[in-house]
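Lab notebook, bench 4. Still working through the backlog of constructs that have no structural model yet. Next entry is a single chain of 221 residues. Request: give me the structure tokens for it.
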Amino acid sequence: MRLVELEKELLGRFLKGTEYEEVTEARYRSFSYPRLVKIMRFRTRLYAVSGFGHVFSMRTKGPFGMELLTLSFTPGEGKEVPYLLIDMMKVGKKRTVFVEYYDRTAKGTDPKWSKEVKEKYDFLTDYHEKPHWYVGERTPYSLIKGGTSEDDGEFTAMVRDSVRAYKKECDGASKDPANLPGLKAFRRRMIEEGNPSSSVLEKVFGKEGAKAFFVNCVMSD
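Model written out:
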């Protein structure tokens, strides 16, 4: 499971056929923690996608061969689709892959293709998380999986199919400004109550800097 190649493929799959522009701020394109020793290295990209909103990508390299790919799909133009967050992590032979949907639309959605992906890959082993407030906020068709390098083929296919399905949902979805307040309220909770990246980002940028990074990049307006 080569995350560098997979990042390029997944972004290309979602951005294909759209009008988009890379809008990554220079200060966020590449950074590390700590700055001198550089135990963790980060590379980010942010794309403004016409008719949708923003797509954010971050690759992280850490100690003991840890690699993480994060993709955040924020429907900031009011599309009637859930917010999608994907995390794929490798540490040695260990793998964790999260495909998280958070539906904050005004009326709720019934995503046919994303539910089909859930049914297809539900046989993979569930990853048992520690309790966090956002766990209970996910839709039932989210996929929270764990395994080993032997599962790389299935995990890669699962993420490919998830992005393909989400793009179908987006292409067929209408827009409604009423969907935006719920999305912004969820983002506020992710900042104030914590998200999976909070502790690391606060070490890198400080508490206020981490908030700015989340607003400007991870879930950009």
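Notes after review: Helices lie at 3-15, 112-121, 152-172, 180-192, 198-218. The mean pLDDT is 95. Flag for follow-up if needed.
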